[in-house]
Automatic annotation (TrEMBL):
Keywords: Heme, Iron, Metal-binding, Monooxygenase, Oxidoreductase. SUPFAM superfamilies: Cytochrome P450. It is found in: Endoplasmic reticulum membrane; Microsome membrane. It holds the Pfam family p450. Belongs to the cytochrome P450 family. GO terms for molecular function: heme binding; iron ion binding; monooxygenase activity; oxidoreductase activity, acting on paired donors, with incorporation or reduction of molecular oxygen. The keyword Chloroplast does not apply. This is Cytochrome P450. Heme binds at residue 481. May be involved in the metabolism of insect hormones and in the breakdown of synthetic insecticides. GO terms for cellular component: endoplasmic reticulum membrane.
Amino acid sequence: MEKPNSSLTEVAFSNEVVSHTNVEVNSIYDVASLKTIPRIDPSQYLSFDMMPGPTSVRFCAKLWSIIPLTQNQEQSIKDTLGADYLYGYLNWYNNIPLFKRMARDYGAVVRIQGPFGGDFVVMLLMDDAINLTQTDGPYPIRSCLHSLQQFRLKNKQYQHAGPFLNCGSEWKKMRTLIEETLHNIVPHQGTIVRNACKEFVQRIAHIRNRRDEVPLTFESEIYKWSLECMWGLFFNKRCGFLKTGGLSESSEPAGILSATTGVIAAIRRCEFGVLVWKLVGTPNWKNLVKHADLLDSAIKKNVCKAQESLRQMKQNEKGVTPENASFLEMLLLKEGVSPESVLTTLLEMIIIGVNSLTHAVSFLLYHLSCNPNVQRKLYKEISTEQDLNKMQFMKVCINESLRLKQPIPLLNRVLTNNTVIRNYYVPKGTTIVITPQLYGIKQEYFENALRFKPDRWLHDEMKLNGYPLSSLPYGLGGRACFARSLVEMQLSSLMSEIIRKYRVEYHYGEINSTNTMLAAPNRSLRFTFIDRE
Ligand code: HEM
């Protein structure tokens, strides 16, 4: 057996390893019982084959190992039918019962072998996921959105896939530049975001019916708000998504809105099930290309304009500062950043960001409308405090809503080192599935876990292995979401405008998350917005 590399061994053993190998997974698991155990003797490693998992799939894998195929055939079958298929299945299914069954039958870590190769390990406890961030090296790898990657690299022949999909030093360099630029720009975004929020509030007044209820298509109104915020951030201008009278079908904003929702729907379908689009152009693949192309051209147009405006600023010897420039312009000025990599970055940020933001707003409104006491308390805070940064209760409402419904319910990492996970020796290249949607509702971590109780965040500092528990909706480690402070500013700005003006109610069936790769509400958002005065 190949030995773990020395740097990993050092990380794992020079620091003590936090583990809970003695804890029965089926029993109630108590965070306080996390045990710090001393060095593990390498002779006690258990082989990866001993990690529990469903045996029928394992049997198929054994068959696979005796069928001789060329490497190319192996790769194409693996790509089309292997781990991707199972991973898609996992995304699509209502995962919670599946995970609970896995934990009951196999324990805290479960190995699933694709029938044609491509093993992955499902991590059912949060502390294993957190420990993983200590060993996944400087360039953690995420493996997903293969369809979007194919669009960028093969269809468009771009050099890089973008910050969500990229790996290695290229990813790190771009991520650092994006983080720096966001950090400088976000403090100057207040007015743009506030204006979008005010327009949204007016739009609600315009679209609600005589019973103060908004139409079944309300989610698309939230999409418009998210897009307006994102356009403001990227291009420092309004695009007009939230026009009071609505969008004409042939307008540019209507096209961008339809492409944003269309591309997400197409990606979801492409990533689920057998990846036939890798071999032939399926209708889902064609839709993805159509919508992503439209977004690409809209962004490209703005990149050209920004280049021109930077040229003029230079000619006029006008300095470019975060106060007078957009995120796009600031990024274009960074050394070694090509317009093409800016383009891919913005496209990804729109696809990931707009979708996540929309989902977060939908569920925050839903949770507040189902919990009038909480909404009352929030209203009181908004009425007495003007400064968003000082609204503590607002912050915990956002935390609590994201705990219950994550916009990105499952994450993954491909191991960059041979790694010891709960004494099992797991080879590098294995995909690890991390399950924040399960951690968020675990009774063992959160008392009355299924209840929306923002107050819980006001008491003790809830930490696990030194990490705030609330951070997992944004992922973890070096690849966690870098837009968190932007998101918190946008969400609190919107909620303060809405709740100041309206009391929000909801009178229909429970709304759940579809829990697909990029999640969405599974019902129409038929909220009632009642004027407060
Ligand atoms: C409520 C809103 C949001 C939530 C809950 C959220 C959550 C996440 C999560 C869970 C990840 C994956 C982290 C991991 O694998 O550990 C992620 C990554 C990412 N998010 Fe967000 N996100 C949100 C909004 C945004 C916005 C508004 C943007 C763009 C402005 C954005 C851009 C990205 C990008 C580019 C990545 C990839 C980062 C990397 O791999 O280095 N997200 N986000």
